[in-house]
């Protein structure tokens, strides 16, 4: 009946027919965030990687926008992910690296990137590393674990609950442990030993990789972890399977949602420790497991893109590729990352590393790829992942509810490479704070200097008990502290930073 009426109208006037046609809104673009863990700016071929090739990532960069000054919000994982999903600076929730039994740190009553896109008509999914806490404390891993992704806007989830180096070493699908067995219940503790599996500290002969004391608790799959766990034998993951398990789940999600707009947050375990790659990728780099993990990650990226192409939806999918914090070589396991790095520079031209307030801590390899929609280029726009919330809201035509995403700014045009004007100023978080204003960078003083654990990892923390001021255009390496030369600028930037932190 409806069709008949429309035909009649069209026959009546040509104008009406054209108008009716125009009103058919095209499907909103899918959004795929490909989020690598601990990948440094210089760890991809397009940014100068020496010890490993990344043809799939490079292809995205060459046919998309490759950013040189785009940042995650903080120099560690949990804070960056918190900001990405909430559009809020991480210090507002004191977000820090979480243990594997921590409660969910995102407020289910507030909007998230996922809930905002869901409200805009998207089907939403998260696959991979979570590390934002689950439940409300004292989680029973043998039952549904909530609140979790569903309560903050994800229709589907398949998770590594915390990190690869933390228990529990099981996957959760839609907030239930995959392979849970009531006859073999799972117990997890971060405070005391639980009976059952051997510990790395007592049985180093069982290990595939030796580990530092913090990573020497329960052994699972030949790797000692942070934290204690027993039970769930059938549910335990095999690290070597991650690339296949995760990409298969992503492919299924894309296939099931190929006819409706979807948002997929695909969060790699790679290239975080433990770097235990599948045998298919062993030896693909000259850098041992860390480089091989990069090759493995690159293969997965290729798989995700191929699936979009095979489904015929690549041209309607915006891909954002980035990382959650800067690179680190030794992060607790003896995997030869330091010994085999050669002339490869994980952080590219920048100073610092994961955990560091210097640029390498947050300046991420960042690529936006959208075939036919984005003109290939290199962009120096200053951007932060905190802004993806507001920018993607713009893309999806969605209003941001009052009080949500307080730090997020719409820079969609910059993300899409239409302008190189990004942020005017931006916060960087590590174990102190920095403020960027154009080429100027001010680092807030912090008493106590670099803690021993960072020194042991050979990380240049950037923690100094005096103010630091760098001019990045002339001094990308943050090597000449100009604070003494520009006291007024230091005062001005310090005041602006404190205003944000209030
Ligand atoms: C640290 C771990 C490190 C890594 C990090 C989190 C120790 C000594 N080190 O506490 O191995 O897991 O937390 O990394 O325990 S992140 O990328 O998830 O932030
Ligand atoms: Ca990380």
UniProtKB/TrEMBL annotation:
Pfam families: Sulfatase (PF00884). GO terms for molecular function: hydrolase activity. Residues 29-397 form the Sulfatase N-terminal domain. Keywords: Hydrolase. Coiled coil: none annotated. The keyword Repressor does not apply. Transmembrane segments: none annotated. The keyword Hydrolase applies. Belongs to the sulfatase family. This is Arylsulfatase. The lineage of its organism: Bacteria, Pseudomonadati, Bacteroidota, Bacteroidia, Marinilabiliales.
């Amino acid at each position: 009946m409806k069709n008949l009426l429309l035909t009649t109208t069209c026959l009546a006037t040509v104008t009406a027919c054209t108008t009716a046609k125009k009103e058919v809104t095209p499907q909103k673009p899918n959004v795929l965030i490909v989020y690598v863990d601990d990948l440094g700016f210089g760890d991809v071929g397009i940014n100068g990687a020496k010890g490993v090739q990344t043809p799939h990532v490079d292809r995205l960069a060459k046919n998309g926008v490759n950013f040189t000054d785009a940042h995650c919000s903080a120099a560690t994982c949990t804070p960056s992910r918190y900001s990405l999903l909430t559009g809020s600076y991480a210090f507002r929730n004191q977000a820090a690296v979480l243990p594997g039994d921590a409660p969910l740190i995102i407020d289910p009553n507030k909007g998230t990137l996922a809930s905002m896109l869901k409200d805009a008509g998207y089907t939403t999914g998260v696959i991979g590393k979570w590390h934002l806490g689950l439940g409300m404390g004292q989680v029973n891993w043998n039952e549904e674990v909530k609140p979790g992704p569903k309560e903050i806007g994800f229709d589907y989830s398949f998770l590594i609950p915390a990190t690869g180096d933390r228990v529990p070493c099981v996957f959760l699908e839609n907030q239930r442990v995959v392979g849970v067995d009531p006859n073999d219940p799972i117990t997890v503790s971060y405070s005391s030993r639980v009976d059952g599996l051997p510990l790395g500290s007592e049985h180093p002969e069982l290990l595939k990789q030796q580990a530092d004391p913090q990573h020497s608790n329960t052994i699972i799959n030949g790797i000692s972890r942070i934290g204690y766990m027993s039970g769930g034998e059938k549910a335990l993951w095999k690290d070597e399977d991650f690339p296949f398990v995760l990409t298969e789940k992503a492919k299924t999600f894309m296939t099931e949602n190929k006819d409706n707009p979807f948002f997929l947050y695909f969060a790699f375990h790679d290239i975080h420790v433990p770097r235990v790659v599948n045998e298919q990728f062993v030896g693909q780099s000259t850098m041992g497991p860390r480089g091989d993990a990069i090759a493995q990650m690159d293969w997965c990226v290729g798989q995700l893109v191929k699936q979009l192409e095979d489904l015929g939806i690549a041209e309607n999918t915006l891909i954002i590729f980035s990382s959650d914090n800067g690179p680190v070589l030794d992060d607790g396991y003896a995997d030869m990352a330091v010994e085999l790095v050669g002339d490869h520079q994980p952080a590219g031209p920048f100073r610092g590393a994961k955990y560091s307030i210097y640029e390498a801590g947050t300046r991420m390899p960042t690529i936006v790829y959208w075939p036919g929609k984005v003109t290939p280029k290199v962009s120096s726009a200053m951007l932060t992942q905190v802004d993806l919330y507001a920018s993607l809201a713009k893309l999806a035509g969605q209003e941001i509810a009052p009080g949500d995403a307080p730090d997020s700014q719409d820079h969609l045009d910059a993300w899409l490479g239409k302008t190189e004007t990004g942020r005017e100023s931006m916060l960087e978080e590590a174990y102190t704070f920095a403020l960027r204003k154009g080429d100027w960078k001010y680092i807030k003083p912090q008493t106590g200097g670099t803690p021993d654990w960072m020194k042991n990892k050979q990380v240049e923390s950037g923690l100094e008990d005096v103010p630091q001021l760098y001019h990045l255009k002339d001094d990308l390496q943050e090597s000449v502290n100009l604070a003494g030369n520009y006291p007024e600028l230091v005062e001005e930037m310090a005041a602006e930073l404190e205003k944000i932190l209030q």
